[in-house]
Design a protein that fits this description.
The chain is of the alpha/beta class. Helices cover 35% and strands 19% of the residues. The longest helix has 17 residues. It is globular and about 65 Å long. The protein starts with 7 loop residues before the first strand and ends in a 6-residue tail after the last helix.
């Protein structure tokens, strides 16, 4: 037995690149065991993964946790959002999942916006103007390009839904992840029959939306997993909603998440509807809302620039005049799905370190451009920004965010906030608490605060100017050979 003060819970983060598992003491928040196993993602025009790899990775990560996982009383899964998982009548994948960063459905996104009333109507209906990341556009792409796959599909799931269903045998999702599909109406908090009919998706193929605090089921796949009979399974949620739980986030506090993608979000008690499409009006996992803006290119793009230059990712140098827009996978914010990276202002005396700093500046500029839009009007804009994700502990990321935002930055000491948020959700099933209150009791957001510095208005204006001037190039669909 572990030396835990309270019952143990398991939180899972099934992300783009890997599955991470934490076994957590529900009383104290102490992590008593952890495990991790990788996934593979296709390269080329699309971004796809075999969902069965996620299950295998979950099993491997759980087994790495040893006896602690066997003692767990509840489990919850936080997962990468928007991915389209198509299953046949036996529950097996019809094809690899189309992931959130697969932008092949950009034409379908534009068509759906036009066919169903325009951006304002979509924002009011679903909270989100669909771009190619949103699941509804991926189904439309599949129907147009792979009709045989559509005909073979007996169930449609999101990544976290797929794993939760394999745990319980029950087809469930939650409002947080459902709100990122484009076929869940944020006004009525139900599947939108008109949208589903328009794209030819039978609502019977979709999972039941479990309410916050409701049990999704119990573990039934006992022969494959180190869980005891009767282990409770929470609803789970999307990765950003799980991270918000993991921080115990209160309304008005802004979060910058620096991962493969970059996100900026805050909890709000008001349902967001942004007709510009910059802010996605997602639901959170508790009953409130999570207005969010996402960039496709964040740490992965900056690391790629560092690798091309043969530099360590921290080897930045100050310098004025060079601008790098690191849109290596197209971009979501701003909405430029066909864009590629763009470099402007290169001189004989430009150094590699200055180019690398320009990549950081370009990535952070995209996030900060949406910051005011995700915050309610009465939010304190001088309060520290919470910096999380894989890049949060990098000095270059921290200093770039401080310099371009002009705000103090707080870096929570807790790691793996998506898995911690899922664990807090699982703990809430046992204690009856609000999962965010559980996380606050655990002290997950505690960490050093870096003081504000003067905002670098000159760099911000230069990047904005290059972005505006280069719009025709960035919007042009390139032909890659």
């Amino acid at each position: 037995m572990s030396a835990a003060e309270g019952p143990l819970v398991v939180g899972v983060d099934t992300s783009t690149q890997s599955t991470k598992v934490l076994v957590v003491d529900a009383s104290t928040g102490r992590v008593v065991a952890s495990g991790q196993a990788p996934h593979t993602v296709s390269t080329g025009a699309g971004r796809e993964s075999d969902p069965r790899q996620w299950w295998d990775a979950l099993r491997e990560a759980l087994h790495q946790c040893g006896d602690a996982a066997r003692e767990a009383a509840a489990v919850s899964i936080g997962g990468q959002q928007h991915g389209l998982v198509t299953l046949d009548g036996q529950g097996d994948p019809v094809r690899p999942a189309l992931l959130w960063n697969d932008v092949r459905s950009a034409p379908q996104a534009r068509r759906l916006i036009d066919e169903l009333g325009g951006p304002k109507a979509w924002a009011e209906r679903t909270g989100t103007v669909p771009g190619p990341s949103i699941t509804v556009t991926k189904w439309a792409w599949l129907a147009e390009n792979e009709p045989d796959a559509v005909r073979a599909t007996a169930a449609v799931r999101l990544p976290h839904d797929y794993l939760t269903e394999r745990l319980t045998g029950e087809a469930t999702t939650d409002r947080g992840d459902a709100s990122g599909t484009g076929w869940w109406a944020s006004g009525t908090e139900a599947y939108d029959e008109e949208v589903l009919a328009h794209i030819g998706l039978d609502p019977a193929l979709l999972p039941r939306v479990v309410r916050p605090g409701e049990v999704a089921g119990t573990v039934h796949a006992r022969d494959e997993l180190p869980f005891s009979r009767g282990t409770l399974v929470a609803a789970g949620t999307g990765d950003n909603a799980a991270a918000a739980l993991g921080l115990g986030l209160r309304p008005g506090t802004a979060v910058l998440s620096l991962g493969t993608s970059g996100t900026v979000y805050a909890v709000s008690t008001r349902r967001p509807t942004d007709p510009t499409g910059t802010v996605a009006g997602f639901a959170d996992a508790r009953g409130d809302w999570l207005p969010l803006a996402c960039t496709l290119n964040c740490t992965l793009a900056v690391d790629r620039v560092a690798a091309l230059l043969g530099l360590d990712r921290e080897a930045v140098e100050p310098g004025a005049g060079v601008t790098l827009l690191p849109y290596l996978d197209g971009e979501r914010t701003p909405d430029l799905p066909h864009a590629s990276g763009l470099l402007h202002g290169l001189r004989h005396d430009t150094t590699g370190g200055q180019l690398l700093q320009a990549a950081y500046d370009g990535a952070v500029h995209s996030l900060l451009g949406a910051l005011d839009l995700v915050l309610d009007a009465d939010a304190d804009r001088s309060a520290p920004l919470l910096l999380i994700g894989g890049g949060a502990r990098g000095a270059a990321w921290q200093q770039t965010v401080r310099r371009l935002s002009g705000r103090p930055v707080q870096v929570p000491e807790a790691r793996e906030l998506v898995a911690l948020g899922a664990a807090a959700q699982a703990a809430g099933l046992l204690t009856g608490e609000d999962p965010a209150a559980v996380a606050r009791r655990w002290g997950t957001a505690h960490g050093p605060v870096l003081d504000a510095v003067e905002r670098d208005e000159r760099t911000l204006a230069r990047i904005a100017g290059v972005l505006s001037d280069a719009a025709p190039l960035l919007e042009r669909e390139s032909n890659r050979n």
